[in-house]
Design a protein that fits this description.
The structure holds two protein chains of two kinds. By secondary structure, chain A is mainly beta. Chain A has three domains: 70 residues, Beta Barrel (OB fold (Dihydrolipoamide Acetyltransferase, E2P)); 132 residues, Glucose Oxidase, domain 1 (3-Layer(bba) Sandwich), CATH 3.50.30; 62 residues, SH3 type barrels (Roll), CATH 2.30.30. The two termini of chain A are 21 Å apart. The radius of gyration of chain A is 28 Å and the shape is elongated. Chain B has three domains: 93 residues, ATPase, nucleotide binding domain (Nucleotidyltransferase, domain 5); 156 residues, 3-Layer(aba) Sandwich (Rossmann fold); 300 residues, no CATH class. Chain B has 17 helices and 22 strands. The longest helix of chain B has 25 residues. The model of chain B has no long low-confidence stretch (mean pLDDT 88). The chains are: A mainly beta, B alpha/beta. At the A-B interface, β6, β11 and α4 of A face α3, α4, α9, α11 and α12 of B.
Amino acid sequence: MAKAYTPGLKVLPRLREKSRRILPITGEVLVVQGQQVGARDVVARSLMPGDVVPVNVANMMSISAGDVPDCLFKKEGDYIESGELIGRSKGIFGFFQSDFKSPATGTIESISAVTGQMIVRGAPLAVEVTAFLSGTIVEVIPGEGVVVEAIVSLIQGIFGIGGEAHGPLRMICEKPDQEMTEDLIQPEHKGCVLVGGSRMTGAAAKRAIAVGAAGIISGGMDDQDLKEILGYDLGVAVTGSERIGTTLILTEGFGSIAMAQRTFTLFKSREGAETAIDGTTQIRAGVVRPVIAIPWPEGSNETANAMMQPTPSVLEVGGHVRIIRDPYFGAIGNVTDLPHELQGLDSGSKARVLKVKVTDGTEVVVPRANVELIEG
Amino acid sequence: MPLPKPENLEVILATDCGSTTTKAILIEKVGNEYRQTFRGEAPTTVEEPAADVTVGVVNAITEVGELAGRTFIDDNGEIIRPRNGNIGCDLYISTSSAGGGLQMMVAGVVKQMTAASAKRAALGAGAIVMDVIACNDNRPAHEQIQRIRELRPDMILISGGTDGGTTMHVVQLAELIAPAKPRPRFGGQFQMPVIYAGNKDAAGLVKETLDDSVALSIVENIRPVLEQENLGPARDRIHDLFLEHVMAHAPGYEKLIKWADAPIMPTPAAVGNILQTIAEKQGINAVGVDIGGATTDMFSVFGGVFNRTVSANLGMSYSISNVCAEATFSSILRWVSIEMDEKDLRNRVKNKMIRPTTIPQTMESLIFEQAVAREALRLAYIQHKEFATTLKGVQQQRSVGDTFRQQASGQTLVDNMALDLIVGSGGVLSHAPQPQQTAAMMVDAFEPEGVTTLAKDSIFMMPHLGVLAQVHPQAAMEVFERDCLIYLGTCIAPKGIGKEGQLCLKYNIKSTSLTKSGELKFGELQLFLLPDGETAQLTLEPARRFDVGAGTGKPWSGKVRGGTVGLIFDGRGRPLQFPSDPKQARQRVQSWTDEMNLYDMKRVGQT
């Protein structure tokens, strides 16, 4: 039987998921192997060197750069506070001296007789990493972080905005092809992860942000609405650092597109469960897709028969795929044939294709590059 | 192992390790000339699970071996040398852009002068320049320091001050870098490589200021005097550090470096190298472009001066949304003669961005993608023109005769009238279903003036040939001419603007297969088939106010080259003119499309 490798997004009801939680710089791990942790627990902490304030002392005191070290009462390594008197110019025969007060708080890192600059470093900045998943610490990487393991329902989105967030899962659409509209979002959704069906309207997204929802997930949205929410036109898909207050995740793509039935059904089966989401998307070599992880309670029946990370899927006849480019964008179906020979497309190009029987029963021919597997 | 003598080189293997694909080609001596004979490719294997670049290299070379009926890899998985009959090769060389290529930050005292020279050195060495820090870049010092902290470049290049000039400002730059404590992208435990190529009098002070947290190397000043750039030593040091630090930390590269018979070059540096070699050997001005999914690399050689720019966020998949944002939809849709809905297009563009490997299935999709490509290329070329300039800050001596033609320093070197050859590469150009689509995209984006030859890189072989040119220039030239380039033809575009229908040019074409005389009117586009390998004697008589290279209204005659497209007579004006009325503009674009036979419009709306 013909087979081909193709990328896909994971939609898995029970997965033994391991999440690496690593500090950006070396620090201290606060938990031990085997320890149970909650999603919001801090597992590692580090102190980054504080921000730096360059102070042009020579200019501010109207003296030459070479005189700066002699005019300061403080030396490298000394701690100074904003407003503290730290220097005085020599003046002319002792007259017309001018005082110099520090404009910043911190430790003097360097004083230069060449440029007349003093570098003040502020207090160290704490960087903390949380567990993200409620689970067990299965590995401690000394000085760097931990690996948390949990049995979860895992769904990968295709695109997201905003970083990590947590909250109980709430279904606000009844069917996967129902639009997520403004009127469906209520004040009691504050702190929740809301799941819609097809397109989320711009007004719905704004309403979710306004009520303080932790996250919103839906099949699609219009690019024009995204632009309005962000306040700019997103140029490249490298996201996660946006500060819009609510993490937003699309499961299918841009436009009016229904959520895959399998994805919707899985969400529905986990309604009410505490959910961890991360909208971070990076579409470059080493792709990062948004994740929605819904841990199963420890000891529940579901944890006993959880599957390990699935091996990369193979596209084969009978496989469940989503078409990801026009003219059939968003259609879902099963592969019926994987012809080996190159075939002509309407664009005039030749490419390897496959045949897909879509849900309405029709069979369409599409380039293999234009489908993705729905894994799980 | 010493290199075999050039005359003994008969079988050459070359690989280019890209971010996603490793491409291998075989070059063999066939009779008295070198030809590229077979090629193979395999996924690049720098990431898990293989995490060893040589695995992909071996796979790609094995494919070449199978096709060529030769054995290149021994039982230990290594390349066999020296050659013995059908086993092994005489020379193995490679380029690499895997893992994001070489990423640098540069700093200089004045943005337009020493910082620009530093940027040129970094780009010429094949780097992506992540940021340029300058004393006059209008950012407060704390912001500059914060930026340096956030970036994780592979190395930093500091320039600044002419020899004997400012030391204070140069030390100020070092004072920005020292407290930022920059960390290299790879190998968290290693020191950040920093190259100092500024005022030699400040070298000691810079060394004092930068503490032991960085690995400082000092080279000759990049701008010893304002009138002169000395990029060579800095570029060489960048290449050395690329091999010592960046490549050595990437998985499997230690082995690859040992395998290669010549230093491994960053891919863009190799492409620049071959373009420079060609321009020098043929005495021509050339522009090369490689439009990828994320970035567009632009190379030019004008008057022997080489320049390279990377437009970091202009590309056809990862960056397609950015092209649309920068160019605007109205600019893109001016190239499209069929009705398209902007809201729908916006969603399609974002869908391509998030699923970058998809390909156009319908004719409408292809037309739209090629319209986006025109704008991506046009914007990248504008950026290139702005960067490829004469040195800024140079004092000019002027005589009375210069009173009416004063030129400021910093004029662009790119002169479309003096341009002889455009070479296009990258998926959207190399894999366009029809060669005339490639030619049209290049002509529309670059707007060449006068007489310009158009070609495309058949299978993106320029990187391999660039590194080969360092070892065996003759072999590289022969393969470049015979197998690398696919000549599309020649574009003849009178410079000037007239009224629609007004006479632009009279022409006379004589060749073995084509003899034709005629007129080109303003606003028209005409295409004549002239097969690849054939040349034609062309006589052009431009109308008053139009110039084809000999001066306004002056006749031009010479030989031009045919190709898979032929001769394109472009009377659309320079700069290219569109009717202001949208309906008329659309009709005009349709007539250009028809004349060039670009798209089978019967297929539009078929699926």
